Amino acid sequence: MAKKAEKQNMSLKDFTHDLRRGLGSAIIELKNNTGKEKYLDIVMRSCLKDIAYDTQVEGTKGYFLYTAIRTFTNPEIFLENISKKFGERLRWRLSEQLYDMLCCFAENGYKNADEVFEKKYYELKSRLPLMRDKKINGFCERELLEKLMVRKLDNGFELYKQCINDMGEMIIKCGSDDCLWYDLFLTEAEEKFGNEVYDYIESAKNENVAAFNQSHKMSEADKNDGLQFKIMTVKDFCKTYRYDPNSSKEDRVTIEHLVSRAKELSSESVPNLFRIHSLAHKFAKQAKKRELKALALIAIEEPSDFIKTALLYVFKFADFPLDIEVLLSYMASESEDLRDTVIETLSRIKDNRIHTLATQLFNDEQVENAISLLESNFETEDEALIRTYVMRSRQVAHSVIMSITDIYEEHKSNTCCDILLHLYKNAECSHCRYEIVETMIDNGVIPKNILIECQYDSYEDTRNLAEKHYKIVDWRS
Question: What are the extents of the domains in the chain?
Answer without folding.
Answer: 12-216, 245-349
